[in-house]
Amino acid sequence: MAKVTDLVKRVLVGRALRSGQLHEQLLPKRVALPVFASDALSSVAYAPQEILVILSLAGVSFYSYSPWVAIAVVVVMLTVVASYRQNVHAYPSGGGDYEVATVNLGKNAGLTVASALMVDYVLTVAVSVANGVDYVGATVPFVAQHKPAVAIAIVVLLTIVNLRGLRESGAAFAIPTYAFMISVLGLVAWGGFRLLVLGDDLRAPTAGFQVVAEQTNLTAFAAAFLVLRAFSSGCAALTGVEAISNGVPAFRKPKSKNAATTLLMMGLVAVTMFSGIIGLGLASGVTVAEPQHVAVDLLRPDGTPVGPDYYQQPIISQVADAVFGSGSLMFVIVSAVTALILFLAANTAFNGFPVLGSILAQDRYLPRQLHTRGDRLAFSNGIVILALGACLLLWGFQADVSRLLNLYIVGVFVSFTLSQTGMVIHWTRHLKTETDLRVRHQMHRSRAINFFGAVMTAVVLVVVLFTKFLVGAWIVCIAMPILFLMMKGIRRHYDNVAAELEVDERIDESILPARNHAIVLVSKIHKPTLRALAYARATRPSTIEAVTVGVEGSEARTLQEEWERRGIPVPLKMLDSPYREITQPILDYVKALRRRSPRDVVTVFIPEYVVGHWWEHLLHNQSALRLKARLLFKPGVMVTSVPWQLHSSDRLRGRRDPYAAGSVRRPWHEVEPDRRDE
């Protein structure tokens, strides 16, 4: 069974890598860009459309506000990118927002950031995969009918790819990400050339369509609220920016410089694609409505509803149709790589979440297992936990993008705001001691950038909470405090354990116990029992006795008679059990020994079978497991398992231990302890 499991693991994950090969898994900029930036880049597939969808609630006339909303989103994005370039230079260890907030604002602020990022990473995977499934499901009916199952299957596939290591996952995602970047930038460039230079008239498939306004005669406040809601939805384009600051250790040296360069490249490309798509969408007359109301609210140019069979193409597909023509090769390529990038966008979270989990585990806020790397030098436990969380969300929300998006971006703007506030304090603290004028000038500039970023992201956070709280953001506002309290509880547990285990200088912990009383548990006389007796005698305890529980009177007498007939030089003690219980009489006897001599230790030797098949575990050792589980909680009691390997556990046929095979002339238990070395 173990061989089969290991074979499956090696096929899926790959061969194990030595710790010394860690440098081979570090990423150059050309691979780091698709690995860490796929989430931020893929947001142009839905962020521009979300702006138009929200504005369409008041009718197509409100599309006139979309350029201003887009400009506001671009300003925030450039501000965040510029701010995070300061972060990666100041804190290159990979702690990102968590480290910045912890060092400058305190542990509670750091844990708040950590809980926000963890929630947002899980939502990144769920939203990206669900959005991609929607995209494919529009043309493949089977996918549309089984959205949650298909989405979960894709998450499992992404998990396997990431478990193979950073380098292999980067190579797997580099080609699709670059294909998406080139195709969308080419779309924007060619569309802009046709529009501005050639003077062509671009017409999207929905040009001339109308939207039935759900909100009419809006007051100034209601109109402003709608525009702010569109802005908060468009800010989904900023998700993933923080992943690079969390993943600095994965870059090749010089790590900070390479991370900052990659961050700048990602920001410029994302801004160009975002602005180009929404600009071409408005120029070509793209019209979209809320997905659940498309059949009724979206009207054709003649005023008739589009009907339930109408498929609303995403904004990129409509722009590609207007620029390249429906059915053209470039239209197919743009549509295909856009669908693919939505799946691969989840990879950003798969690289950010495990690193953050490792840092939190090192600080004792998460289980220590999250700190260690797996066979492929990836943080395997963090990858698996992220995948499980995303699968639960996809299953619980039935992979519904509109419902998941309402939970999105709250966490990331919490971390943005606290991180940039922490950076302002960081530069202020360093300015108090720095005397070099050139360095001080750089610090003043960095502090100004971070201050502007803190104010900007705080405003956006307020807008997001104000506009999205009642439609789903409240779930995140509950999940974050729960994670915060859980991490505090884990840290408290680790601190209590460390304090309890700390050596007290006033007390000599190395004082030997007065005596060691050995007990060998016996059910019948067979090879495992004799081996346990021999091993117990070899440890030279102060006293030794064999203990059995007399459940059946005839069996107990037979055992006693055979014991005396064989002349085993260890006294046999029979414990009564009127209710046929095995575990409790032994526990009571051990407790009585400890009560009689508190300074003594009691060592219990338990013979156990070692089996080779999973189903054999169900047939053996159940009493031993129960006993060990109970004895481990008894102070002053040591439990020693003495294994006996059955033939089914022997993986090397013909090369068994001669003693285990019973071929030794004189059994070990019959040899006096003083003469065993002869």
Automatic annotation (TrEMBL):
Gene3D superfamilies, per the entry: Amino acid/polyamine transporter I (1.20.1740.10)
Phylogenetic lineage: Bacteria, Bacillati, Actinomycetota, Actinomycetes, Streptosporangiales
Keywords of this entry: Membrane, Transmembrane, Transmembrane helix
Transmembrane spans: 65-84, 105-129, 149-166, 178-198, 218-241, 262-283, 329-356, 377-395, 407-427, 448-466, 472-490
Alphabetized Pfam families for the sequence: AA_permease_2
Entry's localization field: Membrane
Source organism superkingdom: Bacteria
Signal sequence, start to end: none
PANTHER family found in the cross-reference section: POTASSIUM TRANSPORTER KIMA (PTHR47704:SF1)
Protein name per Swiss-Prot or TrEMBL: APC family permease
InterPro entries: AA/rel_permease1, APC_K+_Transporter
Topology of the protein relative to the lipid bilayer: Multi-pass membrane protein
